[in-house]
Amino acid sequence: MQVEHKRGKFVQADSTTLLSNEEIKIPFLRKMRPYIILSPAFLLTIGILIPFGMAIYYSFTNFSFKYAVYNWIGLENYISMFKDPEFWHSVKVTIMYAGLATVIETVLGVIIALLLNRESVIAKSLRIVLIFPLVIAPVIATLIWQLMTNNSVGILSKWLRMVGVDNFTWGADPKTALFTVLVIDAWVFTPFVILLVLAGLRSLPKAPFESAMIDGGSAWFTFKNLTLPMIMPMLLIAVLFRLMASLQMFDIIFALTRGGPGNTLMTLPLTAYTEAFTYKELGYSLPYMLILWAFVYLISHYMVKYWSHTQKKASGK
Amino acid sequence: MLLRKFLAIIISLVVGIVFSACSNSTQSSGSSVEKTELKKLDGFDWKRFKGEEINVMLNQHPYAEAIIKRLPEFEKLTGIKVKYSVTPEESYFDKLTTALNAKNGNPDVFMTGSYQLWEYAPAGYIQELDPFVNDKNRTSSDYDINDFFEGVLNADKWDLVPGHKVGTGNLWAIPLGFEINVLHYNKRAFEQAGIKNPPKTFDELIEIATKLNGWNGEGSYGIAIRGTRSWATIHPGYMTSFSNHGAKDFEIENGKLVSKLNSSKSVEITKKFVELIKKAGPKDWSNYTWYQSSSDLGAGKAAMAYDADIFSFFNNKEGASKEAGNLAVAPPPATKNGNLGSNMWVWSIAMNKSSQKKDAAWLFMQYFTSKEHMIWGATQANVVDPARKSVWEDQGFKERISKIEGYEETFNSVIGNSTIKFTPQPEFFNTTTEWAAALQDIVNGADAQERLNQLANDINKRVERLRVK
């Protein structure tokens, strides 16, 4: 007997109505089950949407913690921001920082993961040890590095003096400040890339590599034509996460130099924080954050699209 | 379909909440200087507000520790229950500003610096205290407001007109203690180098500090000075020398605040200061906060420090640092003839304008700024630089500070000419942070006149944002 569902009624093939929806008693809890299951996600969405909506609203006002009254000023904050050379400087620093950090960590992560993808005792122990920086909060890591690079008591400065480099002042010099924060960023986050790439490497099928070996393929040939395309989805996830986090990087730079020397390391998040909490100009700081959000959203959107494409390619579809 | 409907409801709900919250905020914003009407009381009584509960927000500091230690006595005397929170200074003011902005009366009382008053008072966050201090029914007869050092109490007074000096207008907070900026030197370093007396002039300071580079082995240097990209870099040694040199941060011209940071005097003293940093400061100066400066002085890395007088006070205590007992204090070095003074940092307690328990809050403030508590704190706890004159005359306190060579003499020589040397205006943190960034650029090679011209232009634009006249 064929039964089809037409406009809320169960209808038999011979058009005889069996039971209407109203006549079938569905328990209330059963009816609500989808909403109950989804409710944490809805709550989370509200929790994100309310501050986000308020941020958009306040970005069109001159809201400041320093004054009791604020007014709607339209696009004035956005216009001032785009006219401000400091904004363009912070965009440049943000892109440089994020780009360099992501490239360095990806390249280092892949090389170290390839070295660790073997079954020797050293590789096994290093796999555990190399994850340590990842469990340290970036601020704490920065404070450790600050001590190590201190010119009076720092061990790194002492070693540099031993090899004749006397005036290397790490984060205190505009010429080396970016290098210093990149070193700390790489120290903390390269293990994250290693972890993902290593997981990708260990899940690869052995057969193609055995065939390549039998055919006499070189290590570079195997890496370029087999390993890299097959781990590409994992690698892209690592790149995506690192790029997003580096664009939003605040703690390492703030803890090390507060954006200095001068304005050398004033990235978008740091400028937004300084405007909002040091200068108390919340209205003026929000366009910086919203621009950063748009930037991160667009990049992640296209990267996710590209990731789906590479995943299909890696699985041979 | 159902899911879409549900999402639509959620989004409209969120939009509704956001806009109603925003419109409420706009409506609730009121005038910043509304006078508080207080009900009449009949005679002073510590027990009058027995049973009330107040919330107090404290910064992690020896002044706060002294308050916390004596809370049981206060609660016993008044019957008022005190709930308190202590927050480290790094995040204290962010948390406090947000709490005051909520205007829900919590906290009732809070610790603050005087510079912060220039933001909080125009915003209507703090209660003016003159009606409390001047009311015999609210203030104990032995409170004696005139016992506070004039310059210190003046730091908490302002008439809310940007550009008008401190000491004018309402009293917004009561000082707990203060810091003046002096020259700290290591006697061992001086003896070792054959230097008999601490430098009296800035040129002597540069010469001696340069001579003392490497005095205690590898990595040791002449003088510790703060250098981070923060307002806190400007206010100690640099601002002290800046004002002693006769330079000014602002002047009022045609009714407008105009930056004077590119004046000839400002450029002169900035160049001197930069010369000192380059010749004898820490190599990584731009990473130096008060903490690094104080630590280096105590650890024997820096032979001198030009910073808050508490450096020697705490580092000189037996066992507190490697150089304990070797540190001494001298007045700030002069760049020209005239009375030397110091810029000041003042820790105070203030009352939330939105507090619903203002009288109970005032009893709390009164108790913890009384002569009796300040003497106790200065002799039994770690309260340094108490704000009352009578404490400095107390034998117990005199004995305590006599262990630091030059401390009392230096204090007596500069206190008469010391107060806050900045021009009060609500963009203080904005302008001084940019000032610190400019100082960093000059130390890193930028031309002083050019960079200070750029800074003055930038600051003039920033003070245009001022919404108080």
From TrEMBL, chain A:
Family: Belongs to the binding-protein-dependent transport system permease family.
Primary localization class, coarse: membrane
ABC transmembrane type-1 domain boundaries: 91-303
Segments traversing the membrane: 35-60, 95-116, 128-148, 177-201, 286-304
Taxonomic source organism: Parageobacillus thermantarcticus
A Gene Ontology BP annotation from the UniProt entry: transmembrane transport
GO cellular component, one term: plasma membrane
Membrane topology of this protein: Multi-pass membrane protein
Protein name: Carbohydrate ABC transporter membrane protein 1, CUT1 family
Keyword vocabulary terms for this entry: Membrane, Transmembrane, Transmembrane helix, Transport
